[in-house]
Design a protein that fits this description.
By secondary structure, this protein is an alpha/beta fold. The chain has two domains: 126 residues, Response regulator (Rossmann fold); 154 residues, 3-Layer(aba) Sandwich (Rossmann fold), CATH 3.40.50. It is 39% helix and 17% strand. The protein is built from ten helices and twelve strands. It has a six-stranded mixed β-sheet, with helices on both faces. Helix 1 packs across helix 9 and helix 6 runs parallel beside helix 7. The two termini are 23 Å apart.
């Protein structure tokens, strides 16, 4: 997840400098800030775009920016606990979770009344506001099946306080999957795993392989993911991971750059959401892009056809 944010930021820098002509500077700090400042032709920055690693540690820095009249854009991850966030650009994170859960729903035939099936749930990092939207979106689809007994969480581990994965660490997810398999699935089959991110999915799949999934007579559970990372797309081609979510960071960069350019030109930028993203101090005006569910039926069209991934990268 961190890697995708770094890539997304580098794309944004290219759009701002190459297409709009803004001078850009990039700073990284151990506290979790990747910032892109657009200096004016005179002195000082007029806008600050922040792709935050930890969205909870920036209040003092943002107050200093506000004192200087600098407009602040949260990029991909919402910055919480500060009134000094002017705009937010991201994908529809609730819909990301919905699409992940719908992949499970489709693969298991839940709409057709099939079941019961065993499922385990994984969440993202608890310091990432997006994680809660992913989880809530997924559970809006899965919870009714759990309530009806069509999906069974043998561990009974539900809720972000129990299923979160700090720092989106794949090794942490793998260790938790090891424990779940040992404690609850020694004599039961696991049919699905809700994984919110490809980096976790790879670790989860490694754990599953370790106890025999993927061999004859023991197919992999339905494992979801997010970000269409190359290792996970390759895993899909091997019929290990079932699906991922494509979030075109090129489009996110374009939207953000356009909004920045509008603000600095004295115009009101276009937003399409003014209700969803409350950072615990204020609702931040946002622009949400649409995510796309990817499986073997459409990966060529969506990923290769769009130029996001080259076919030779999947060899």
């Amino acid at each position: 997840m961190f890697k995708r944010r770094v890539v997304a930021q580098s794309i944004l820098v290219g759009v701002l400098s190459g297409c709009l002509g803004w001078a850009t500077t990039v700073q990284a700090q151990d506290k979790g800030l990747i910032g892109v400042a657009m200096p004016t032709k005179t002195k000082g920055a007029k806008a600050l775009v922040i792709a935050s690693i930890d969205g909870t540690t920036l209040s003092n820095a943002l107050q200093k920016a506000a004192d200087k009249g600098i407009k602040v854009f949260a990029y991909d991850r919402l910055i919480v606990g500060s009134k000094n966030v002017d705009y937010y650009t991201t994908f529809d994170n609730f819909q990301v979770g919905v699409l992940q859960a719908q992949s499970i729903e489709k693969a298991l035939g839940l709409k057709e009344g099939k079941g019961p099936f065993n499922i385990e749930l994984f969440g993202g990092s608890p310091d990432d506001n997006n994680s809660f939207f992913f989880y809530d979106g997924a559970m809006s689809v899965l919870q009714p099946y759990i309530d009806k007994g069509k999906l069974v969480v043998q561990s009974k581990q539900l809720g972000m306080n129990k299923v979160s994965t700090l720092r989106w660490d794949g090794s942490v997810a793998q260790a938790r999957m090891d424990n779940l398999l040992s404690a609850y699935y020694a004599k039961k089959r696991l049919d699905a795993v809700l994984s919110p991110y490809d980096g976790l999915s790879i670790g989860i799949i490694s754990s599953l392989k370790g106890v025999g999934y993927g061999q004859a007579g023991q197919p992999f559970p339905v494992v979801t993911g997010q970000d269409a990372e190359i290792p996970s797309v390759k895993s899909m081609l091997r019929k290990e991971q079932y699906a991922t979510i494509f979030k075109d960071t090129r489009e996110l960069a374009k939207v953000t750059a356009t909004m920045v350019d509008d603000v600095l030109a004295g115009k009101k930028p276009q937003v399409n959401d003014t209700k969803t993203y409350n950072n615990k101090i204020k609702v931040v005006p946002s622009y949400l892009l649409k995510p796309v569910a990817i499986d073997l039926s459409n990966y060529k069209k969506e990923l290769i056809g769009s130029g996001y991934i080259k076919e030779e990268q999947l060899q």
